[in-house]
PNPLA domain-containing protein
Amino acid sequence: MDWIKSYFNYYFKREVVIVNNGETNKIEENIEDSFTIINNNNNGANINNNDNNEGGIKIIVSFDGGGMRGIVSILLLKEIQNILGFDIGTNCDIVCGTSTGGIVTYAKLFNVDNDEILRLYCEFGKKIFPSSSMGIMYNVYEESTLCSTKELISTLETNFKGKIMSDRKGFVVTVAQDKITAEKSVKIFANYENPLTHLHDDDKTSVVDIIRSTAGIPGLFHLYENDKFIYYDGGFQYNCNLPIALIEASTLFPNATKLLFISIGTGYAKNDSTNYYCSNDLTDDRVEEYLNQCKQQQQPLILKETDDIKLKLKLKNQMLGGIYDLIKNLYNLYRNYVNMTDTYVVLQEFLKDHQLDDHIFTYRFDVPLEYDISLRDSSIKAEQEMQRSVYDYVNSTPSFKRSISNIKKLIELNNNK
């Protein structure tokens, strides 16, 4: 633990907060920014898998925020499941989300199927995000907010409280404002401990409050707060959370053969296609080349036992220096994204930095919408437009089926290791 403290002090010049049984210890007082991971495991389950140090392909599924446009994410999940034959949201190593993507994330951690999520989303969306002027006026009168915080809390408690969480790793992104200094920092609420940073559970934070923290938009809802922080929607800094997902996956699975990122958006207006459109062609080319190499070599993804032992001994000797370099590089990349609030800016920068990385495959699925749908638009018209747009995207985009087919082949290859 001491070497981690000194390392963070030396390289990062920032605050790392350790939350341990309610006690908070600061590693450094003079900070440039804060990046705190708060772990949450309300069920007391053993979340740390035993295969973290093994090789193979690790799958990370990431959900953007977007309010009611989260319907797009759920519909895309359903279409991906139809081709794969299984739900990628419940068959991955890490599932993560921002804002309403955090709701989908926790639904997957509780093994809620996509049809049920879609039904719940549409049902409670109409209560939380009223489309009529009378509904908005009622919320303003009753709660002094445009949307119903009471309905949000009630719905979350009904659907998540008391349920048993799966052993998959998951996290959501939020932005916390210090009540004393007013400084804002990115935080992660997770259901696991990161073995590298040894950050411990925050047992005081419930799943309901975690989701409120990642989806807290001032004016729309009453914000969740505790003694030290006021929590804002994570989308203010990381609506697309791929950079954080990379940091988490790289430190949790340092020996992974490949990191497979599947990023799912919430739709964008057609007029913004120039900025938001993201082709998977380059990733597909790289994946197909990799699959062909594996086929030609006729070798499993994991080395033979004797070679594997030698490699582990070598890694053990090099681990300290390797971890130093890894975190230093990842943190430098992370800092570049901190002020990029637009989803497409973060996404494009991430792809520019990592699309050609040998150990990373990144897929992005998102659909153009005929018009710009507001994040609180719960109207039938908006719902129908999202359904139509996803249908058109899936059935008129040849690369979609190509990409899902390649993802399926990677998973099958990994399962047959």
